[in-house]
Write a structure and sequence with these properties.
The structure holds two protein chains of two kinds. By secondary structure, chain A is mainly α. Chain A has twelve helices and no strands. Helix content of chain A is 79%, strand content 0%. Chain B is of the alpha+beta class. In chain B, a hairpin with a 2-residue loop joins strand 6 and strand 7. Chain B starts with a helix and ends with a strand. The chains are: A mainly alpha, B alpha+beta. At the A-B interface, helix 2, helix 3, helix 5, helix 7 and helix 11 of A face helix 6, helix 7 and helix 13 of B.
Chain lengths: 312, 533
């Protein structure tokens, strides 16, 4: 069972990773100039009020003591209360996380749905007009800022045509999907461009591989060659890319969520950073780190399935 | 200039029509339809709906929908009118204030408002250990119950601001019994839990709150106030705040009919929305002033000498700024020049003429007199990403170049800026201000009165002004207080410790079928009179 051991090892690596991330984010949040209390009270509060609230929130303790308190509570799943919103951090995260996860999932599905067929079409028509057209369009997708794409999609499809609601999240599951389509599409475009280019190159490389020539020579049907030999092998690199890109999608969600008024973790994070709301920043960063680690783990799994050499 | 005309018209409209009889609710739609759900787009969510412990406008500006105060502000922001108290009278040389609370008032859960709730709420609000606002009622020495509907405030000294303070958000009346029954080990814990499901006597009650997404309020069936037609207020059954941080998205949503109204329309978009046949662009007179503030200490925090310590230099910088041009560029003509450090909507405002009208020759002469004819370099900090501030600074940069002054713009995020500001480690800073209370005392204590925060942390400290201000804080004769404030505003203007740029209105856009919304100069939103036609 060497592969199981390898997987266990990967899982175990996650623990020190989280600890390091926990410490790093704690320290980084406090290295930001300005503090939570003056960010909260603005420039009107008296020094007396600032000092009182600082003490009430325990922010006058030494950094070491605060870090210890944070870590020991975090291990027990207690991330404290938001400094600016005065509600338990976990509740804020629990409300926002499913929203962002749905958004990222929709973006990933859309990106793959767009990129996979087009990459194949481009590769099979390499350097002919379909290839050039597809690459040109994706070049635009890749080089346009997310907020700009979002603005255009919102204005055209929601504002002018009225096919979609102008931002928001809705109430029911169906409404959520409906509301998340445009932001998902926005988020997916640059991702789709990366996947498309990567997969196109991979397909081109695989197409010239000897085993493909061999498969063709065996007289296998074109579709079988493409699906079983070309796609599977070309996808290995793409899967890694998708896994790595989940982190980037979570980052892109910050802007997309703002433009589309989606109440996800991206907006919560930005609000919390501006408010120096340390408990929320810490919890969110940890949660995002867990998610990215999980995405990497899933990537490893899929890779292992696609490429039996992995984990040996 | 059509825009400022509109502004005036709306202001007068709100004043004359809305407030004469009904207060904070238009009479223009006395026959307005009742019912329906009013959907309003806000740029940011509320944080903490506690009248005493909140610290942000996102709370302050909407909290009046849930909590009532003993008195209510008038729409012009200059006076007070009946609220939970129907009568009030001073005695004992202004040191005792007796208020009569109207009978039969109920909280939104149906329980009766007791006079002890009033005492408890005011005592909570004035606790020096609670929140950031207790200073506004620091003159109260004791709150006494004098009968089932009578409350007596014993003041340490006569306080001309006390009535305005009793119409300010932090003196909102809560239910002692409900608060104490709220789960939580400490009063702070109880406050947190209570603020999530606040119960007040206001026109609306909170029914659902999804953070960063939506806040739903329903009409309070027990609300005490009646409309002109004798039927209960508010008009709408439901009030929904949708949180849409992006200005463009909020406007698109309004245009698509997914919102009835939207706050904070960027000034650059006002003309476009004014031209939209489906919308009504409202410009509410505000207490918002935008200015550059200066450090006046002779030495900066980094040890360098500070030319701004010279009054003539500060006056020169003021004369060198063409405010009309700044107003045209940043506010697209929607702003107006400042005539005092306080807005023209502030009680006791006194501004005979716009401050420091553009005069390049005078500016040069003053600089020469001060020994700076060769100019100098000055830096100004601003919040990164605030386009209006950046427009102002780049415009001023070019104007000051004409007198040899080189302006360096330092962008940083707000907490960083606040830290440097509080530490008095800056040379200039851009800022905007709105009053929280309908009285000039607050803005004066921050801008001009030295002992509070060194006059906007500038280090400026004028003995005469300090004296007049302290006296004015106890002057109950309005005429005398007006004279004091004339002097305060004159001294401050001459000192030129700020570069006053402009006053701007609050911008709210509505679908044409909605009427009756009021935003007072302090910024508070009143939905009690809003109706969907």
């Amino acid at each position: 069972m060497p592969r199981l051991g390898w997987l266990l090892g990967r899982l175990l690596q996650i623990v020190p990773t989280f600890l390091l991330i926990g410490i790093a984010v704690f320290v980084l949040a406090r290295l930001l100039p300005g503090d939570a209390v003056s960010a909260m009270l603005g420039d009107r509060a008296s020094d007396e009020t600032i000092n009182r609230l600082t003490a009430q929130l325990g922010l006058n303790r030494s950094l070491g003591a605060q870090l210890l308190a944070f870590l020991s509570a975090a291990v027990q799943g207690d991330f404290g209360a938001s400094l600016s919103r005065h509600v338990p951090v976990l509740r804020l995260v629990a409300e926002a996380l499913p929203v962002t996860l749905s958004l990222v999932a929709i973006a990933t599905v859309l990106a793959l749905a767009i990129a996979l067929p087009l990459a194949f079409i481009a590769a099979l028509n390499a350097n002919r007009w379909p290839d050039i057209a597809i690459r040109a369009v994706f070049q635009v997708g890749l080089s346009s800022p997310v907020f700009y794409i979002g603005l255009i999609l919102l204005t055209v499809f929601a504002g002018w045509l009225g096919w979609f609601p102008v931002g928001g999240y809705g109430e029911t599951f169906g409404e959520h999907l409906y509301h998340l389509f445009l932001p998902g599409l926005t988020l997916s475009l640059s991702f789709a461009a990366v996947v498309m280019r990567n997969l196109r190159a991979a397909v081109l490389a695989v197409l010239t591989a000897e085993y493909v020539d061999f498969a063709r020579a065996k007289g296998l049907a074109r579709s079988v060659v493409l699906l079983r030999h070309v796609l599977r092998n070309a996808l290995i690199a793409t899967v890694t890319l998708v896994g790595l890109h989940v982190g980037a999608l979570l980052g892109g969600a910050v802007i997309t969520e703002t433009v589309f008024a989606v109440p996800g973790v991206g907006r919560l994070m930005i609000d919390s950073i501006f408010a120096r709301d340390y408990p929320v920043i810490q919890a969110l960063t940890l949660v995002l780190a867990v998610l990215v680690s999980l995405a990497f783990l899933v990537t490893d799994f899929v890779q292992m399935w696609l490429d039996p050499r992995v984990g040996r | 200039m059509t825009a400022s005309l509109t502004s005036t018209r709306r202001g007068l409209f709100g004043l004359a029509a809305g407030f004469a009889a009904l207060s904070l609710a238009d009479t223009a739609h006395a026959a307005a339809k009742r019912g329906g759900k009013l959907i309003y787009g806000r740029y940011a969510d509320s944080l903490f709906l506690d009248p005493v412990l909140n610290d942000a406008n996102v709370d302050i500006w909407v909290i009046n929908s849930v909590y009532d105060t003993l008195l209510l502000p008038t729409a012009d922001g200059l006076g007070v009118q009946e609220g939970l108290a129907s009568k009030w009278a001073f005695s004992d040389g202004g040191k005792t204030l007796t208020l009569t609370v109207r009978p039969g008032v109920k909280f939104s859960d149906g329980s009766a408002l007791k006079i002890t709730d009033v005492k408890w709420s005011l005592d909570r609000a004035r606790d020096p250990k609670a929140g950031a606002w207790n200073d506004m009622i620091a003159s109260i020495d004791a709150v006494e119950v004098a009968g089932p509907d009578s409350i007596v405030l014993k003041l340490k000294t006569p306080d001309p601001t006390i009535l305005a303070a009793l119409a300010t958000f932090n003196t909102g009346i809560m239910s002692q019994a409900l608060f104490e029954a709220t789960p939580g080990a400490t009063p702070d814990d109880k406050a947190k839990a209570f603020a999530e499901k606040p119960v007040g006597t206001g026109p609306f009650m909170l029914v659902e709150w999804k953070r960063n997404q939506v806040m739903r309020l329903a009409r309070n069936p027990h609300y005490w106030r009646m409309a002109e037609d004798g039927k209960p207020l508010p008009y709408v059954d439901e009030l929904e705040f949708q949180i849409i941080p992006d200005d463009n998205t909020r406007i698109l949503k309004l245009k698509a009919g997914e919102l009835h109204g939207s706050e904070f329309i960027p000034l650059a978009r006002v003309k476009e929305l004014q031209a939209d046949a489906n919308l009504r662009m409202e410009l509410w007179p505000s207490t918002k002033v935008t200015y550059l503030s200066m450090m006046v200490k002779p030495t900066l925090a980094d040890g360098k000498p500070n030319p701004l310590s010279n009054q003539k230099v500060r006056q020169a910088l003021n004369y060198a700024v063409n405010k009309d041009a700044v107003i045209a560029i940043t506010t697209l003509g929607l702003g107006k020049p400042m005539r005092s450090f306080m807005s023209s909507t502030t009680p006791l405002f006194d501004g005979p003429a716009p401050l420091y009208p553009y005069d390049l020759a005078k500016a040069k002469a003053l600089l020469a007199e001060a020994g700076f004819s060769g100019g100098f370099e000055v830096s100004c900090m601003t919040v990164a990403g605030n386009q209006d501030n950046l427009n102002n600074l780049t415009t001023v940069q070019q104007m000051w170049a004409a007198i040899g002054v080189k302006l360096k713009i330092e962008q940083m995020d707000n907490p960083s800026l606040t830290k440097k500001y509080r530490a008095e480690d800056f040379q200039m800073r851009t800022a905007a201000w709105t009053n929280d209370i309908s009285d000039p005392g607050q803005i004066t204590s921050y801008f001009a009165y030295g002992p509070n925060i060194h006059a906007l942390h500038s280090g400026w400290d004028d003995k005469r002004l300090n004296e007049v201000f302290l006296a004015s804080q106890q002057e109950t004769d309005p005429a005398k207080r007006r004279v004091q404030y004339q002097e305060i505003q004159k001294i401050y203007a001459d000192a030129a410790t700020i570069v006053p740029l402009y006053e701007t209105p609050y911008t709210v856009a509505w679908r044409k079928n909605v009427s009756g919304f009021v935003q007072i100069p302090l910024g508070n939103n009143y939905f009690v009179g809003a109706a969907i036609g």
